[in-house]
Each structure stands twice: as structure tokens, then as C-alpha cells.
Amino acid sequence: MSTFKDLVSKAVELKGSQAKLAEEMGCSQQQVSYLLKYATSISAEMALAIDKATKGAVPRYALRPDIYGQPAKRSRARASA
């Protein structure tokens, strides 16, 4: 199981730098650095921003499962013939 810091690191890798991730999240590079070095949790707002910035590659439910949980699995209805 990944910690939120592992997931934030993955987001940084995907974007290429803390600054690029921060720009897409709408926050400062210092806030991203703080998440990686000192934070003990991540806010729901930051989780949403990372989800959006990574186009779901780092999903909000992985960052904050206590709030967002796992997405519901969709069942495929079969056509009756």
C-alpha cells in the first residue's frame, strides 16, 4: 500500500518537476515540497488538485480513501435476446 507521499512523488515524476505539478494544481512549488517533506496528511482539496493535474493517474481516492473511498465498479448489463 502506497503512502500519500509515495503518490505525491509519483505525481511529481509524471509532471517532471514539483514546479510543473504545482502550476497545474494551482499552488506553489513550496506547497508540493511541504507535502513531500513534512506533511502528515493531505487535504481533500490537494487530493482533488493532484487527481486533476495527473488526469487521474494519481487518483483522489488513493490519496484520501477516508473521504473518497474506492470508485464503485460498474456492472455491464447484458442485452437479452
UniProtKB/TrEMBL annotation:
Stretches assigned to coiled coil: none
Pfam families per UniProt: YdaS_toxin
Annotated GO MF terms: DNA binding
Superkingdom field: Bacteria
InterPro entries the UniProt entry points to: Cro/C1-type_HTH, Lambda_DNA-bd_dom_sf, YdaS_toxin-like
Ranges that cross the membrane: none
CDD domains recorded: HTH_XRE
Protein name: Helix-turn-helix domain-containing protein
